[in-house]
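Suppose you are handed a protein chain with no further information: no name, no annotation, nothing but its sequence. What can you learn? This example shows the usual starting point.
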Amino acid sequence: MEDRPKKYMRETRTVKTSYVFPPDTNHLGTLFGGKLMAYIDDTASIAAAKLARCTVVTASTDSVDFIAPIRVGNVVTVEAMVSRTGRTSMEVFVKVSAEDLKTEEIKIAAISFLTFVALDEDGKPTPVPEIIPETDEERWLNQTAIQRAEQRVLRKQQSEELARYLSKMPL
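A reasonable first move is to predict its three-dimensional structure. Written in structure tokens, the prediction is:
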């Protein structure tokens, strides 16, 4: 087995903070889910690129679990870091929090896991460094990634099966 370089999870930590303004929200005054998903993908891709130091592409988004609303006037913070690596792929954990600057209340608003693949100049998958967890939280994220990877494989197989089925159906 090849001896890949190693990096600490903390070296991939990426943070994006933004105010939530009225044009960013729906008729209920909460952040559009699609806008948050764009923030998540953007921040996660930067975390993956910090590890790979090359072009990365989103291979999958496991889910975006919306836990609490993010309201107009809140500050939304998206924190991402690589939680596990394969040979050419990286799982990225993303935590989203909403902060009310007047009351100082901070709550976790969403959690997501995404997978990225590193690409060389020819667009082919290329090896990435191994990731090293240090804290209890990082170790937990790293160790539980194996279960998420297994679920990801099953979900992809189901999606491919559904796509084959749907491609036979007329619109």
